[in-house]
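Journal club prep, notes for RB
We'll compare a predicted complex against what the paper describes. Inputs for the fe (ii) ion case:
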Amino acid sequence: MYPFKYKSSIVKNRWYMAAFSNEISRQPIERTLLDTPVVMYRKESGTPVAMYGLCPHRYFPLAKGRLEGDDIVCGYHGFKFSESGECVEIPSQEVVKARFCQPVYPLEERGPICWIWMGDLDKCDTNLIPPYHDFGLDQEGWYYSSENYFHLEGRSQLLVDNLMDLTHLPYIHQQLGEGGDTLKKIPIETQERDESYRILRKGKMPWNPFLALIFGESAAYEGLADFVHLSDFYGPELIKTSIPAITKLPNGEDVPKELGQMLILHGITPETETTTHYFGFSTRNFRLGDKALDVFQYESELQVRQQDVDAIKAVEERLDVAAKKHKELLAMADVPAVQARRKIEAMLAKENPILDE
Ligand code: FES
Ligand SMILES: [Fe+2]
């Protein structure tokens, strides 16, 4: 499947975002993750559970059933399953003869996010959850905001490609104005780190109205400021972009603490081979708890992400036919996207030996 040579383009052995923590409650929800229907709910203790979402009896969605303590009862004929997936009751008979277990999946709640592992159990290790310390989540002096979710009608790789090539900013996100234009012209550097594959852009940008909105009206400067812009590819499941961080003021002075870092996170979870759950959130280490900034940023991010979602949908609708007709024309700015594809291709090669015809 485009752009990979394997039948499936979904890497299984990763921790993916299954849900924001506040989505999972005592009311079961159903979400298809990695081409598999999953039901999620909380036990009485508050611990979240993820289980294969269809009842093995007649494939009724378990999310339409109800909880009894920590067990879930199917809403069709009342088969009951414990939190570990075991079928513990069939109301129409005295005993459950054959021992049957629904698959359950490791679900790890870390702060505002529940991560799910649907790959090989012998490879499941919570140390592989993306490194929160690297993007300010649940860290002292950092603030979490702008939680949002989009259903993307496109394969997850198109979102990875989109985030690894920010030269689309001045075209898809014209409202960002000069900021986007500046990034387009800056040469990129790349770094292989323990935590991520990093893309850096360093340059000068005019102090503009967008920066004033982010850093506050009092932070008003004239002229060109030095900045660094970082993107981090943690894996197919999470990418970080950011608002350019100012490293020197236009007047040459050092940057005050108030001009901190704002990071934009993109959780990417395949729903099917051609559709994706897109989870967005942001962290920052300045203007902590500033509601006016929260509102501005939330609205801005909704707009930006919707624009990407619309663009990717337009590509997905044409992709299968187009990719058979001609090869992609690649540009210099595609280096990070190509590199990310290589990394994903290597992950797929380990898991998925079946080549596409
Ligand atoms: S479909 Fe669930 S009990 Fe029959
Ligand atoms: Fe974008």
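Talking point for the session: The chain has a mean pLDDT of 94.
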